Structures are given as C-alpha cells and as structure tokens.
C-alpha cells in the first residue's frame, strides 16, 4: 500500500490527488486507524447529542456563524501552538541529534513570553 501511495504522489497532477496518495500511505503505515476511530466517535457524539433532551454538549450553539467561526479560529490557533510545542523539541532531538537540554533551551523563550505576557501575570487583566 505504501508503494501505491508513493506512485500516486509521484504522478499527482493536482493537490487533491497528492492528498489521496498521502492517505493511502497513511493507511499502509497504520496511522489511519486512530483517525477512523476519532471520526466514528465524533459521528456517534453528534447523533447522540441530537437525540437527548438535555445534552452535555449543546451543538445547537454552532448554528450561530460568529460563534462557530470563533470556535474554529481558537481550535486552529491551539493546534498550531501545541503542534509547535511538541514538534520543535522532538525535531531538535531526533533529527538534529541534540540533547534534551538544548531542546528545552530552544523553547524556553516561548514559555517565558507566555508567563510574563499572559493575562495571569498582568495585575489589571
């Protein structure tokens, strides 16, 4: 399967077909199973909350386009922030071959920034 995805990637005339090749490669490496489980659980959550009289998570709030846009924006910002928080130290250690100390020192300025520029520190916030 991985070879099939690699061939599709090599011959892809468009981005959509390139993504198809990546999905096939993901299926071959076993990364697709957690994604499928998450999608099935998400579908189950939506179906279940629609049937309950008092759902734990009221999905009707997402019908407001401004609220839905702000939730999506927050989600994307968090994915970028947390993705960098996990990827940068691992990249520094595994790809560059540096120690955990170097990786920690590399991400230290970001932590200090959030500590002193966050709303918890500022007395007037």
TrEMBL record:
Residue stretches spanning the membrane: 23-46, 66-88, 94-114
MF terms (GO), sorted A to Z: transmembrane transporter activity
- Tell where it localizes: Cell membrane
Keywords of the record = Membrane, Transmembrane, Transmembrane helix, Transport
Residue limits of the Major facilitator superfamily (MFS) profile domain?
Answer: 1-125
Topology in membrane:
Multi-pass membrane protein
Designated name of the protein: Major facilitator superfamily (MFS) profile domain-containing protein
Which species is this UniProt entry from? Lactobacillus amylolyticus DSM 11664
């Amino acid at each position: 399967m991985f070879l099939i995805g690699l061939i599709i990637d090599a011959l892809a005339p468009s981005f959509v077909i390139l993504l198809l090749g990546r999905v096939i490669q993901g299926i071959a490496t076993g990364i697709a199973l957690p994604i499928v489980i998450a999608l099935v659980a998400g579908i189950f959550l939506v179906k279940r909350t629609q049937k309950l009289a008092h759902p734990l998570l009221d999905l009707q709030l997402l019908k407001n386009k401004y609220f839905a846009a702000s939730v999506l924006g927050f989600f994307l910002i968090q994915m970028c922030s947390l993705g960098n928080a996990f990827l940068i130290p691992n990249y520094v250690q595994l790809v560059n071959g540096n120690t955990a100390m170097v990786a920690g020192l590399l991400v230290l300025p970001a932590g200090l920034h959030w500590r002193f520029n966050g709303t918890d520190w500022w007395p007037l916030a």
